[in-house]
Amino acid sequence: MTQRNLAAGALAVLTATALGVPAASARADRSDVVQQHLDRLVSEQRFPGALASVRDAGGRVHDQTAGVGDLRTGRGVPTDGRVRIGSNTKTFTAVVVLQLVGEGRIDLDATVERYLPGMVRGHGNDGRRITVRQLLQQTSGLPDYDDVLFTEPQDLVDRAHAYLEPRRLVDAALTRPRRFAPGTRWEYSNTNYVLAGLIVERVTERPVGEEITRRIIEPLRLRHTSWPGVGDQRLPGRHPQGYVAVAPGAPWVDVTEMDPSLGWSAGQLISTPGDLRTFFEALLAGRLLKPAQQAAMLRTVPAPEFEPGGVWAYGLGVARHDLPCGGHAWGHGGDIQGFETRNLATTDGRSAVVAVTGLPTSLAMAEAVSDSVDAALCAPAR
């Protein structure tokens, strides 16, 4: 559910050659470059399977796969299959909050205390000093409940079926001291987005999943995107199996059926690479937010540890990345048991989503997934 905390805590194309593509492939079209990277995610990094959905600057969409979708049966990876998208959920949650800001129902610079009185207290954590904007921008200083609930790699398997209510997630975080004074630093914390979801529910008096569905999923016709109900551990429709390995080289354990409540409004959604790409394209095109809220979302602060490589800055639920081929792109990414997803979109219409069917167990594995997205955006159009 984290951008990388769950995997790591329990754990570029200037030229084609710079990303490890053989020199002879430097003139390959986008589809070939993407396929080469997906194949290497399986053959070199040992992910069970990989999926991608890419739109080039000409508007052409390529959906591709590599590896196997089920290690037991050997069946293939379904094209544009459903996966758990982890922390990409944060961008959906941020959009709902910002829509409510545009409706005059939430004030970005009001305190958490105004909407959730008395909830954030203890060990220096104080909702009277933290604003809604700081939650969305990851500058609140609140500890991450992941660091409390998932302390060993084996927890990723042993707690896969645990149902965790949102308030329990917050309470777990508040057993730790605040990380820094609000607004003085940037640091990723899932706790911020669980609180954002609770604010949505307090203001609308409706479940946050319902608000995400009504305000985003249905208007954009994201037919394969869904918010799992309480206790729903299934991955519906056509999907690959998802896996966890508790150490580098350890066997992959099937965790396709798991309870995503540990992510809630920070990481619970299910989608496909194609639907997720459509969402980020619509967001960048200004189809989801009013201009003032769009500008607020894209106003960033440096986020040097958002990913292990590259230059990143964080807005309100969305990150800006400097592409190795020049320019920048926007996206988020997410990790949850069974899946890692990385994605970026540009204002000129290019977009790419890559998902792998296992959490990385090494820095090299994580970097290879991110590199594949850079490669997809930087490769020449067909």
How would you summarize what this structure contains?
This protein is of the alpha+beta class and 382 residues long. The protein contains 13 helices and 15 strands.
Set out the fold topology.
Layout: H1 5-10, H2 30-43, E1 49-55, E2 61-67, E3 83-84, H3 89-102, H4 112-115, E4 121-122, E5 125-126, H5 132-137, H6 146-149, H7 155-158, H8 166-173, H9 190-204, H10 208-217, E6 243-244, E7 253-254, E8 270-271, H11 273-284, H12 291-297, E9 301-302, E10 312-314, E11 319-322, E12 328-331, E13 334-336, E14 339-345, E15 351-356, H13 363-378
Antiparallel strand pairs: 1-2, 1-15, 3-8, 4-5, 6-7, 9-10, 10-11, 11-12, 12-14, 13-14, 14-15
Helix pairs in contact: 2-13, 3-9, 3-10, 3-12, 8-9
Outline the structure in words.
This protein is an alpha+beta fold and 382 residues long. 31% of the residues lie in helices and 14% in strands. It is built from 13 helices and 15 strands. It has helices at residues 5-10, 30-43, 89-102, 112-115, 132-137, 146-149, 155-158, 166-173, 190-204, 208-217, 273-284, 291-297, 363-378; strands spanning 49-55, 61-67, 83-84, 121-122, 125-126, 243-244, 253-254, 270-271, 301-302, 312-314, 319-322, 328-331, 334-336, 339-345, 351-356. The strands form 4 sheets. Strands 1, 2, 9, 10, 11, 12, 13, 14 and 15 form a 9-stranded antiparallel β-sheet that branches. It has a two-stranded antiparallel sheet with strand order 3-8. Strands 4-5 form a two-stranded antiparallel sheet. The two termini are 34 Å apart. Mean pLDDT is 92; it is low at 7-30.
